[in-house]
Amino acid sequence: MRTVRALFGRRARLRWLHLIMGGALLMPYFLVGTVLVGMAGGGQQLFSSVPAQLGAFGLALPMAAVTGLFALVRPLCVAAARALCGVPTAVLADGPARTRQARVRTAGWYTLHLALGGIVSGATLALPPFAVAVAALPLSPGLRSTWLLDGPEPLREPWALALAPFAGIAMLVALAAVAAAAGEVLARRAPVLLGPTPEDRLAAAEGRAADLAVRNRLARELHDSVGHALSAVTLQAGAARRVLDRDPEFVREALTAIEETTRRTVGELDAVLGLLRQDGEPDGEQAAYGPGLDALGGLLAYCGVPVAYESEGGPEAPGAVRPDVSREAYRIVQEGLSNALRHGGVAAHGAGSAPVRLLVAVRAEELEIVMENPLGDRAAVARPGGGRGLRGIAERAVLLGGRAGAGPDGDVWRLTARLPLAAPGTAAGTGPGTRAAGAERSGTEAEGRR
After folding, report:
1. What element of type H or E holds 369?
2. Which of 93, 177, 267, 345 is placed for a possible disulfide with 376 were both Cys, Cβ 3.0 to 4.6 Å?
3. Domain ranges of the chain
4. Which residues are in the Signal transduction histidine kinase subgroup 3 dimerisation and phosphoacceptor domain (predicted)?
5. What pTM was computed for the model?
6. What pLDDT sits at residue 80?
């Protein structure tokens, strides 16, 4: 039963059809080869000469190989192989063949397909009528008189006629076996010749890495913006609820802070969601959308915690920082404030506790950020499993070529970040992969402490 399925099952029939398609594609090249052979041999007995036909077949294959070098041949071959050869989708490459290696492999597959297809197609056209005629010899006196009258003496024996039907069936089975074997050869060679080349795999990996980088950046934007807003709003609302009857003026200020925080966050959220709704992938500049250090005043005014802010490098220094560094520095400060609200002594003792200290210093070659807040109850600081905030800070710093760290220092929690003002270098050890790995390690260590 397994043998019958292998020779005549659905997959075998589809592969047979695939081979016949290869024979049909071979015909134009074969006709050109026939013309060339006829011109070389004077056109004598061209179609009845086996050597002439073999010569035309031999000339057709190199011409087919040249056609297979075109880039658009690969997607057509891949589509046919997936549909008819039963080759798994994942092992075949998508898109045109762009590299030399991909084109050579495609040409090899195309030539192999047409060569095997030409042989199987020719046998499919010629052998079944002959096999049927042989099988019908015992039943047709006309066939016997035509075929056996001048044939060898053994073929005139009764036992030879009795075996003729079995011989005809054997020919058809042999044809099916040849077609199945040829289809299996194509199916086994498809992943090698039509599969992704090392260049294709590298391009796909780079595409996935770029897509992941954009998604991670957008995720960090949402985490820092929405997370900070929720922390600030929660703290302000809780403080306002506690003093609602005693201090209406404080409640009014808290509600104003909640209004300003939510309005700013809704604008940032709408911008990020707009990037996610785009048909194409946002480029790096779009994905880095967000406020910069010039908006730091509004953030500190309505963050829900008193902040002692100090700027070094001149009053206009933060505004002169490169835009991408300015955006990342703003997010780092925002996440630091969120951590102070959620985990520090500020959240534990309310808005009247010791203020957060923030230093933003523009040095000759780097931007330095230092933030300190009271540590509070150590049990309240610990978070099972950690969070994503400090990891995001580390990623932002390392991807710019800088560094960041956070941890307890006495009775305060200190967050530091140093961001280079110049573009990140391309020296060994500072490429994107190295920076991303460093960000992952730094973020994981910081989260474990926080």
Report:
1. strand 366-374
2. 345
3. 2-196, 201-449
4. 215-279
5. 0.57
6. 92
